[in-house]
Amino acid sequence: MVDAASIDGFLKNALRACRSGDDLPWPNEWPTEFQSETALTMIWSRIDYHGICVLLHAANAQFHDWPKELKSRIAEEARLAGLWEFTHGAALANLLEALDQAGIEAVLMKGTALAYSVYHEPSARRRGDSDLLIQPSKLEQARNIFSQCNWHRDAQIHGVNHQECWLHKSAAHFEHSVDLHWEPSDRAVLQSVLKPDDFFEHKRPLLRLCSNAWRADPALTIIHEVINQKWHEAHGYWTEHGHIRGARRLIWSLDFGLLTDELDQQDWERLKNLCNDRGIGPLVAEALRGAASDLGTQMPESHIVELESMELRAEIATFFATSDSLTEFWLNLRSASSWKERARMIRKRGLPPREYLLTKYPAQAGWPTLLLQGRLLLETAGRVLRKAVAK
């Protein structure tokens, strides 16, 4: 029987073939029935999870004996991804131009920054949104610019303190999303690792998107990607096929390979200095070794060993060792910068907006907001009590 692990192994080989230009035949050991509609749907779900559809389509000629149904689906999704990218990039460039005209400094982070820097084709770096960092003092002004550019704020987002989601409908009927940040991470535990000044002081132009686009430098981007990957390993990742936990996405491994290809000696030194200062070196080494294992990426061994020898901060290790949202909340609460910030975190978690409560309790749509909030508080208190008793 072909399972998710064997499919993932095959897809790793497919990505290696994409990079080397070699052919990759359909596995002879896979039974004929694995070309059934059910089986091909399973394979597609892994391609979708790993975010590698456009990359596979670009290497279509190397996979000449793959099932036609699977190749057709890859081609259709790649076409849609290209259209999404075109409309997303246009809406984003217009927004960045308006922010720049208003004197608001903005830096793109994570997927979109990677798409327009280290990938030959931006649509190959699949993602659902763009992450944009501004200075907190510019938040109200930035909100006005978003509104003027026909973006609207998503009121349903809950549980975040230093970011908010803005949505925009394009002429092609795609709804685009930008997460507007005034801290690089919404999690207080990680704010001592990802500091806003680092993003602005060492920013680099992202001219393939537009003349007003900026991104973080590659060393800082690697650390940010490591943190993003570790969090999703613990908490899972949503696809159209549901919630998947525990696996490392291959697109992240490719990110690390392309980013390390970009590093010169000065960048490597900056990466090591940042990791040593922020207490995250072993996690970065783990991610880079994982990427090298997945795709055969060559990385300087001496640098990896040096990262592995660094001390991992205890609170960082504890944070990534839990997948429980309540435990994560308490860790963030303890790491908050002030009592005022702690009070705001408690208020936002305990008294969320009605829109969020209705998604959590759809059967109680007729209840007043206060009663829904009371139910949430009682359930949270019950979880705290059960955890205390378990100890």
Care to describe what's here?
There is one protein chain. With 391 residues, this protein is of the alpha+beta class. The protein has four domains: 4-66; 83-216, Beta Polymerase, domain 2 (2-Layer Sandwich), CATH 3.30.460; 219-238 and 245-312; 351-390, no CATH class. It has helices at residues 4-20, 37-50, 53-58, 68-101, 110-115, 139-148, 196-201, 218-235, 250-262, 265-278, 281-295, 301-308, 314-321, 325-335, 339-350, 354-360, 369-390; strands at 106-109, 130-134, 152-153, 163-169, 175-181, 204-205, 214-215, 237-239, 242-244. It has a five-stranded mixed β-sheet with strand order 1-2-5-4-3. Strands 6-7 form a two-stranded antiparallel sheet. Helix 1 (4-20) crosses helix 2 (37-50) and helix 9 (250-262) packs across helix 11 (281-295). The chain is globular. It starts with a helix and ends with a helix. The mean pLDDT is 88.
Could you name the key traits of this structure?
391 residues, alpha+beta, Beta Polymerase, domain 2, 4 domains, 5-stranded mixed beta sheet, two-stranded antiparallel sheet, 9 strands, globular
